[in-house]
Structure formats: C-alpha cells, structure tokens
Amino acid sequence: MKHLLSTADLGRDDAVQILDIAEDMAAVSTREVKKLPTLRGITVVNLFFEDSTRTRISFEAAAKRLSADVINFSAKGSSVSKGESLKDTAQTLAAMGADGIVIRHPASGAPRVLAHSGWVDAGVVNAGDGTHEHPTQALLDAFTMRRRLHGDASRERGLDGVRVLIVGDILHSRVARSNAWLLKTLGAEVAFVAPPTLIPNGVAAFGVDVHYDLDEAIAQVRPDVVMMLRIQQERMNAAFFPNGREYARAWGLTAERFRKLPDTTLVMHPGPMNRGLEISDEAADSAQSTVLEQVANGVSVRMAVLYLTLAAGTQTSQGAQ
C-alpha cells in the first residue's frame, strides 16, 4: 500500500489487514519499551495546513514509536502563509528527503493531487482534506468498535451486521463520509441522522439510510453504535439550524435520550466534543462511551498505516514486531 487517501479505496481484506496489524501495534504499548525499529532511517513529515491537536500528535507518536524521524510542518508561520503553493512546498520536502507525508489540507482532494502529481516520491497519508475524507479516523473508529464488540475474537473479523447510527453535521463531516464507506465495506449497516439542512446533496451515493428524527431513528435502527459528530461551526457560513438549544433538544444525545439506550449501545465521538450541544456529559463520561479509547487506539491504527505505506514491502507484520 503506497498511499492511504480514501476509505473508498480499501477492499474488505485491506481494511481487515490494517485492523489486524493495529492489534499487533497495540500490543507494543503494553511493553516496557514502547518502540519498534521498523521505520528507522525513514523521515515522516506531518504537513498540516489546518489546525489540529489530536490527529497531529497521534501521527507523531505513531511515527516515533516506529523509530521514524519526524518533521512537523505547520502552514502558519511558514512560507505557505507567504503564498507558497502546495507544489513548491511538496518539492521542498522532497528535496529534504521525505519518505512519507501525512497531510491535512482545507481543500478536498489535495492529498490525492499530492500523491499522483509526481512532485514527490513519498507515501502519502490523508489526515483530513476539507469536507471530503478522514480515513484514519474511520479506521480507528472501526478498530474501537471491533474491539468493544468482539473482544479477543476481533482478529480477521469485520463488523458484519453491526448497526451504526451517525448523527449530526453530516454535510461538513469528512468523518461521516470515511466511516460510511469503511463500515459498509466491513459489513456494518449504516444510517445517517441530521437536520435536512445538514444532509449533503447526493447522499444516495453513500448507500446508507437517511433519517431526520433522532428518536424515530433510534427506535427503527436499534443501533449497536451511536456516533455523534461535532457541529463544525467554523465551516458554516449560514444558519443551518435555529439555535444551539434547539439542536441539542432535537439531535443531541441528551442525558434523557442516553438513558433510554440499551446498556450495550456504544457511544462514540471523533472529538473535540461540544458538550451540551451534540452530546451530554452523562453520555460522554459513561462506561458506554469510547471517546478516550478512540484517542488511544488512534496511535495503534496510525502505526499500522505508516507501517503498511512505508515498510510493508520489505517486512511482514510479524517481522515488524
């Protein structure tokens, strides 16, 4: 696997392989020495044109645990803020000997352009592009679901028959898109719930059920997983719902709504959370919540992705250990 640009590019076997290798990587975190020599001598550049905390730190930790040399590049305060193009930035990184580039960019499709432009001969991993995709977030979400639902029997398994309800700002969410494609590939049944104004045009292309009433959706779908999405106010240039109170009442996972869910229903959120808007404290801090697990699992999943894009041609996953 030279690049990871979209979950739509992954077949079931590819996705399961990533999740299984992530299990191997998770085992590393339990060791006294939490490092592998797998990417020694490899340079990974975190090329972030948008602000990020969780994703950038997670990729940095993943690369360092694999013994890679890491360069963090932020657009703010760099030549990009002076007008330098993606092409010129990429060619500069290539001249510095970058072997892998983890890119987050506000323009949808930028990682694919970078991967296929010929500007760099490096593995490219999409860490979020505009409102398009965030494939490693979807992979860590699937990894978290698989571990919670299947436990020690997770290996070599997908998510067949698992019912997942994705709720909130579908329109602006790259997480929703990546999850819809990946979860369906793994055999899950996926449904979207949102105000009509936050459902994108062409939603039929996702092949998921669409609901506009959260309570009705919960009753009909009987979800195993409820995934709440962040309201991305920074991407909104119009009024998509009356106000925060109205949104929370109709589409938020309130304490009252959460208490009606079965004890076995998982509650997920990609973070950062707007508590009191899309999710209540009771739901976010409950035993059913996987929010902190998602953050921890992100390092293991990103280790697996970096391994497969930068080292798998010369080693087996067993050899990586």
Automatic annotation (TrEMBL):
Broadest EC class assigned to this enzyme: transferase
Q: Binding of L-aspartate: at which residues?
A: 82, 174, 230
Any idea of its EC number?
Answer: 2.1.3.2
Per UniProt, the keywords (alphabetical) are: Pyrimidine biosynthesis, Transferase
> Which residues participate in carbamoyl phosphate binding?
54-55, 104, 134, 137, 271-272
Q: Which residues form the Aspartate/ornithine carbamoyltransferase Asp/Orn-binding domain?
A: 160-308
Q: Taxonomically, which superkingdom?
A: Bacteria
Q: Where is the Aspartate/ornithine carbamoyltransferase carbamoyl-P binding domain?
A: 2-146
Q: In which pathway does it act?
A: Pyrimidine metabolism; UMP biosynthesis via de novo pathway; (S)-dihydroorotate from bicarbonate: step 2/3
> Per the record, what are the reactions this protein catalyses?
carbamoyl phosphate + L-aspartate = N-carbamoyl-L-aspartate + phosphate + H(+)
One Pfam family, short name: OTCace
Q: Please explain the role this protein plays, according to its UniProt record.
A: Catalyzes the condensation of carbamoyl phosphate and aspartate to form carbamoyl aspartate and inorganic phosphate, the committed step in the de novo pyrimidine nucleotide biosynthesis pathway.
Q: Which family does it belong to?
A: Belongs to the aspartate/ornithine carbamoyltransferase superfamily. ATCase family.
* Protein name as annotated: Aspartate carbamoyltransferase
What is the scientific name of the source organism?
Frondihabitans peucedani
